[in-house]
């Protein structure tokens, strides 16, 4: 379908608006249009616009992203669409409100860095073992009382940051023995 210059310029105005409602309306309109990828480039400039695209299932602007930073957004849940971002290598969710890490994160098989600093995590899913490229895992300042068994199955990890959790010295030492090549910070 061909769109007029007025259609496109109106859509751009909505996307550039400071209003959340206008931005969401523009996303809904854009989903119904067959627009080139270059049109969406501006939508990934802020973490807020990326979050809205993800939640509104407008995936085109996010498909090629290798880093997503949703830090300081107080995220309580992650949409299932996150698993579609197969190019993602770094996911930053610092200062989140997640009590457990959703399984969808395990679908991000190219992920190398996962930052979950300062949150409410009590546990990690066993499916995290599917992240075979993961090298850096930041779990500082969460509410982990036990170390997830999945960590013992992830020898590719270069660093695990565990400072500020409710872990015992014995738990940390056991992990250090199991993963001698991993730099474990506590």
Describe this protein's structure.
- This is Leucine-rich repeat containing protein.
- It comes from Microscilla marina ATCC 23134.
- With 186 residues, the chain is an alpha/beta fold.
- It folds into two domains: 1-63, no CATH class; 65-186, Ribonuclease Inhibitor (Leucine-rich repeat, LRR (right-handed beta-alpha superhelix), Alpha-Beta Horseshoe).
- Helices cover 23% and strands 10% of the residues.
- It is built from four helices and six strands.
- It has a six-stranded parallel β-sheet, covered by helices on one side.
- Helix 1 packs across helix 2 (20-31).
- The longest helix is centred in the first third of the chain and has 12 residues, at 20-31.
- The model has no long low-confidence stretch (mean pLDDT 89).
Set out the fold topology.
Layout: H1 5-15, H2 20-31, H3 47-55, E1 67-69, E2 90-92, E3 113-115, E4 136-138, E5 159-161, H4 169-178, E6 183-185
Parallel strand pairs: 1-2, 2-3, 3-4, 4-5, 5-6
Helix pairs in contact: 1-2
What is the rounded distance between the termini?
57 Å
Strand residue percentage? 5-15%
Indicate the CATH topology of the largest domain.
Leucine-rich repeat, LRR (right-handed beta-alpha superhelix)
**Classification by helices and strands:** alpha/beta
Please, how many domains? 2
Strand order across the largest sheet: 1-2-3-4-5-6
How large is the radius of gyration?
19 Å
The ordered H/E elements are HHHEEEEEHE
Shape descriptor reads elongated
**How many helical stretches?**
4
What's the main sheet like? Answer: 6 strands, parallel
């Amino acid at each position: 379908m061909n769109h007029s210059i007025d259609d496109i310029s109106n859509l751009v105005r909505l996307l550039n608006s400071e209003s959340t409602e206008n931005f969401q309306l523009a996303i809904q309109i854009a989903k119904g249009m067959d627009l080139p990828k270059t049109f969406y480039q501006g939508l990934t400039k802020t973490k807020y616009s990326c979050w809205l695209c993800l939640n509104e299932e407008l995936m085109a602007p996010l498909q090629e992203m290798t880093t997503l930073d949703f830090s300081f957004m107080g995220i309580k849940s992650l949409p299932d669409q996150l698993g579609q971002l197969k190019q993602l290598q770094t996911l930053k969710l610092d200062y989140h409100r997640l009590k457990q890490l959703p399984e969808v994160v395990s679908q991000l098989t190219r992920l190398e860095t996962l930052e979950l600093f300062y949150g409410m995590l009590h546990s990690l899913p066993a499916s995290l073992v599917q992240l075979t490229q993961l090298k850096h895992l930041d779990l500082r300042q969460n509410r982990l009382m036990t170390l997830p068994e999945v960590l013992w199955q992830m020898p590719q990890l270069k660093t695990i940051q565990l400072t500020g959790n409710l872990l015992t010295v014995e738990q940390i030492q056991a992990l250090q023995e199991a993963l001698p090549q991993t730099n474990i910070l506590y």
